[in-house]
Write a structure and sequence with these properties.
With 112 residues, the protein is mainly alpha-helical. It is built from 6 helices and no strands. The protein is globular. The model has no long low-confidence stretch (mean pLDDT 88).
């Protein structure tokens, strides 16, 4: 492995760690830190961040609470039209406040 490959591998690991940290912040209710983390990640790859937030909504938020799903989807649609970081911040706040657990993914696993 040459120096360039090593640097790219390190960067990818750092980005993966940043997403894990974002998930922890969302679960533990760290609003300000989660918003800062998300704003930093959107500068790296906006589509990847939005995919992460949408996946998180489906997998970690209670399926009994549909409001976060609708809010994140609406904010993603708004962001697609007008790339403002405020849409990401609002999505993060909605996810921090959302009830966690009992996701649709958990419900599907029980029925399979």
């Amino acid at each position: 492995m040459n120096a360039t490959q090593y640097a790219l591998a390190t960067t990818e690991q750092e980005i993966a760690d940043a997403y894990r940290n974002l998930g922890r912040m969302l679960i533990s209710g760290q609003k300000e830190n989660a918003m800062k983390q998300a704003i930093g990640l959107i500068k790296q790859d906006a589509v990847r961040l939005w995919n992460y937030l949408r996946e998180y909504t489906s997998s970690d938020v209670s399926f009994l609470e549909t409001t976060p799903l609708l809010v994140v989807n609406a904010l993603w649609n708004n962001w697609a039209q007008d790339h403002k970081d405020v849409f990401v911040a609002h999505a993060v706040l909605a996810l921090v406040q959302a009830t966690k657990g009992n996701s649709a993914a958990d419900a599907m696993k029980k029925h399979l």
